[in-house]
Task: inverse folding
């Protein structure tokens, strides 16, 4: 085997005392397609940011470990360093100028120029573009990828798939490129485009370029990767070659972790065969979390978990039903069809929502705790009001204070008092305020999205215990959406996995890691065990 | 020491700097042996007459449309109300009352339309508002010329078309509030009637902010997405805020006019929003947050500065026009300074 083009040795990285990478090592040879596989938040992107010298790494205290590129110790302090060394990166977001042609985008800031009369007199800066040569280069790059498209078309209005190819073409057009990093390149591609893309990857590797391929689509990994590294929670948990790898193994490695199941007392099933919520053909137009066609039933008195990888639409379901994003389809709650796209209707019928975007839509940061807690109940249900003057509805500060004090005590919200501004609270306590607001509505069904995002470990357990308590003691049906599978498995009765905007399957919390991994990676709905 | 710092942080540097400047001016006034009693009377009078215009900023800030730079729209409604009440040949309290009723009705309609406009230009309300105000003022200039009013109190005495630039209110509602319960204390005049009226309206605005609709409006202003998720119609709350602000503008100009003694037409309302904006900013408000306290403190500080700065600059620079120039520099300087503080304190 040839000399490795890239070696990462013992890379560790901390963000504010939180270890996100622990002694990760990785070796890539020229012409090799190396897949880096892991869940969201496993540390893949951080690793790539280190490799690419992103400023975010250096502004948070750098990293430890060594990068050896092309046999030499490399210090990469900025993306520019990385590019000069011959590392190319294709981003998830398109960094293209819409009004420019494909050729112009490909050659941006690397234009081929020729002299004209003015430039001969006034210097280099005024040279004109050699469009013909640029076109030829662009054509060559596009041909390498096998894309049949006119190189003079403007980028604006092209299908996303093509935009992805243009990004790649731009990288391979750089002459010195030795290593290309693809960050979830197929996430936005259709199946056909993805096939085309994978073929292009093979062509590239055949020409001697090393490729580092970040993905969680396991079938693609099997198709193109020569070697596979699986990381989980910042650690390398497996190194496989294509021959020895199976999708099942990878799935298990990707997901597997110890599960601390909070032991529940035997649940009171309040006639649990009855559906409280029936979702049919739900589509939600939430940017980045598109729900394409979901059919799902929620049983009365259960805790239903909704899981899946980021960007597959799990978050969109609750947001769509609660009317925060454009939705279509049919949702039946307690036997009655609800009006979609109408938050008030959903709230009035007895549903409440704790948003994943806590600081954005979950809280009034510059208002007091008590106001945050009672506001929705006051506006929607007319609670906490008094008509002491001229028949006008005024806020009943006595009742509000009483209720807020009671909830602050019950939920153990750590604060200086009900008048404290919510902005001054810690993440965990802010989350409790959100939950307090939702339960003030006394809902029959509570949607909770990402309840533990951005809060510390201790507070996580408290929040989960709280949800469990609401379910057990008040019989509240809870639909919890979370990116953290372990958390879903700790308190849910059933877990629905969403893949590509659709329901992939429903699993019991004690199902095998492999099944969860497979479902989250898609394409294995046939193998899923339905439980009810 | 840390307590002093904390106090300063809470109170806001802007306000402290303005107060220091004011104290320097007062010392200068004393040193120049100016009439302090008339200065104090002037401050009390001007603060009272301007306070409603400043108060008009509160609902617009609370509903999330920012500072109402289009306040001239409301002001014009009030002026039109006054003109109509004069045309009806009313006098005294009756004239003031009718002018208010007409002004408020017009302001409700105008505020609704203005609110619809602001809902289409979210996040640029203040810029668009400024120019909407300018355009409406210019449009109304034509109206003042073309309107078929016949009352000799308002048209040019020597004939021709159109209304006068300033209409005296001597025979109508000049000083109806100012002279009501006017207190004299050792040469200092305190217009208690004016303050009772203004503070009553402040109280009304405060009460509204405690009502269900008022709370919904503030929620829509402080976090529109939260408000939507709580079933509040954000657009209609913004319209309510704009209507209230416009109505207060109309009522405010009538209070201003009765105290001043003249009704100013044509281009006079053009820049009337700026002092109101500056006053509430100096009072400690921001584009997101404004309260009655900000209104009261801000109006007093701002007007006190103007009232004291003028005679002081007059005494220091007695040569003709120069003091007028200095006065303009000072008043606009304070406005600029206030606008740079648009982020506000706590």
Result:
């Amino acid at each position: 085997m040839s000399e490795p083009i890239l070696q990462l040795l013992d890379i560790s990285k901390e963000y504010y005392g939180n270890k996100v990478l622990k002694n990760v090592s990785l070796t890539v040879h020229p012409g090799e397609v190396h897949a880096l596989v892991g869940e969201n938040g496993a540390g893949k992107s951080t690793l790539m940011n280190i490799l690419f010298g992103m400023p975010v790494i250096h502004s948070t205290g750098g990293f430890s470990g060594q990068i050896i590129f092309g046999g030499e110790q490399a210090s990469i302090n900025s993306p520019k360093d990385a590019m000069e060394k011959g590392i190319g990166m294709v981003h998830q977001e398109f960094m293209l100028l819409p009004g420019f042609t494909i050729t112009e985008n490909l050659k941006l800031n690397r234009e081929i120029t020729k002299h004209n009369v003015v430039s001969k007199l006034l210097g280099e800066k005024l040279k004109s573009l050699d469009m013909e040569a640029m076109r030829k280069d662009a054509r060559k790059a596009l041909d390498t990828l096998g894309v049949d498209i006119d190189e003079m078309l403007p980028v604006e209005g092209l299908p996303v798939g093509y935009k992805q190819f243009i990004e790649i073409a731009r990288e391979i057009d750089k002459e010195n490129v030795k290593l290309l990093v693809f960050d979830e390149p197929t996430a936005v591609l259709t199946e056909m485009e993805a096939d085309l893309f994978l073929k292009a990857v093979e062509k590239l590797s055949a020409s001697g370029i090393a490729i580092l391929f970040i993905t969680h689509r396991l079938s693609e990994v099997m198709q193109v990767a020569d070697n596979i590294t699986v990381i989980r929670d910042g650690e390398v948990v497996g190194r496989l070659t294509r021959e020895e790898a199976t999708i099942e193994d990878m799935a298990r490695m990707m997901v597997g972790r110890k599960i601390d199941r909070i032991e529940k007392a035997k649940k009171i099933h309040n006639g649990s065969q009855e559906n409280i919520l029936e979702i049919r053909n739900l589509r939600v137009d939430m940017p980045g979390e598109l729900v394409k066609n979901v059919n799902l039933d929620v049983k009365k008195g259960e805790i239903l978990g909704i899981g899946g990888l980021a960007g597959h639409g799990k978050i969109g379901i609750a947001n769509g039903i609660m009317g925060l994003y454009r939705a279509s389809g049919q949702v039946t709650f307690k036997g009655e069809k609800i009006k979609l796209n109408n938050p008030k209707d959903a709230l009035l019928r007895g549903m409440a929502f704790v948003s994943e975007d806590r600081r954005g839509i979950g809280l009034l940061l510059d208002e007091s705790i008590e106001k945050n807690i009672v506001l929705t109940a006051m506006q929607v249900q007319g609670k906490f009001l008094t008509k002491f003057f001229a028949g006008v509805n005024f806020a009943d500060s006595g009742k509000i204070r009483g209720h807020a004090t009671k909830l602050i005590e019950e939920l153990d919200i750590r604060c200086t008092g009900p008048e404290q501004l919510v902005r001054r609270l810690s993440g965990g306590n802010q989350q409790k305020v959100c939950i307090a607001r939702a339960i003030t509505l006394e809902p029959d069904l509570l949607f909770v999205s990402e309840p533990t995002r951005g809060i510390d470990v201790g507070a996580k357990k408290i929040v989960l215990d709280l949800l469990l308590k609401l379910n057990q003691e008040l019989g509240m049906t809870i639909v919890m959406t979370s990116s953290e599978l372990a958390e879903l498995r700790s308190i849910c009765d059933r877990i629905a996995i969403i893949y590509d905007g659709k329901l992939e399957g429903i699993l019991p919390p004690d199902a095998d890691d492999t099944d969860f991994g497979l479902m989250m990676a898609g394409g294995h709905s046939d193998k899923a065990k339905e439980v009810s | 020491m840390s307590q002093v710092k904390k106090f300063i942080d809470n109170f806001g540097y802007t306000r402290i700097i303005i107060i220091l400047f004011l104290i320097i001016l007062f010392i200068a006034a004393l040193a120049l042996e100016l009439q302090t009693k008339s200065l104090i009377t002037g401050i009390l009078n001007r603060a009272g007459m301007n306070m409603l215009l400043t108060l008009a900023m509160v609902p617009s800030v609370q509903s999330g449309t920012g500072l109402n730079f289009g306040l001239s729209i409301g002001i014009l409604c009030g002026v039109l109300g006054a003109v109509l009440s004069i045309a009806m040949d009313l006098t005294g309290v009756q004239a003031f009352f009718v002018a208010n009723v007409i002004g408020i009705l017009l302001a409700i309609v105008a505020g609704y339309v203005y609110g619809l406009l602001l809902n289409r230009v979210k996040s640029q309300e203040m810029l668009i508002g400024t120019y909407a105000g300018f355009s409406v003022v210019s449009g109304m200039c034509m109206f003042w010329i073309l309107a078929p009013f016949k009352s000799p109190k308002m048209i040019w005495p020597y004939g021709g078309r159109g209304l006068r630039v300033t209409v005296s209110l001597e025979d109508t509602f000049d000083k109806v509030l100012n002279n009501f319960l006017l207190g004299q204390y050792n040469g200092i005049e305190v217009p208690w009637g004016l303050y009772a009226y203004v503070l009553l309206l402040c109280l009304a605005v405060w009460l509204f902010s405690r009502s269900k609709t008022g709370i919904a409006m503030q929620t829509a202003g402080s976090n529109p997405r939260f408000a939507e998720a709580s079933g509040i119609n954000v657009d209609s709350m913004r319209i309510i805020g704009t209507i209230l602000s416009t109505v207060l503008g109309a009522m405010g100009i009538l209070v201003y006019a009765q105290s001043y003694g003249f009704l100013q037409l044509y281009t006079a309302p053009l820049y009337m929003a700026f002092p109101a904006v500056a006053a509430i900013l100096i009072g400690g408000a921001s584009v997101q947050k404004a309260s009655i306290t900000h209104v009261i403190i801000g109006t007093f500080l701002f007007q006190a500065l103007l009232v004291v700065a003028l005679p002081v600059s007059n005494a220091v620079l007695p040569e003709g026009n120069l003091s007028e120039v200095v006065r303009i520099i000072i008043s606009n300087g304070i406005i600029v300074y206030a606008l740079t503080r648009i982020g506000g304190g706590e």
Q: What stands out?
A: The beta strands of chain B are 166-168, 182-185, 188-191, 262-264. The mean pLDDT of chain B is 88. Residues 58-271 of chain B form one domain. The first helix of chain B runs from residue 2 to 11.
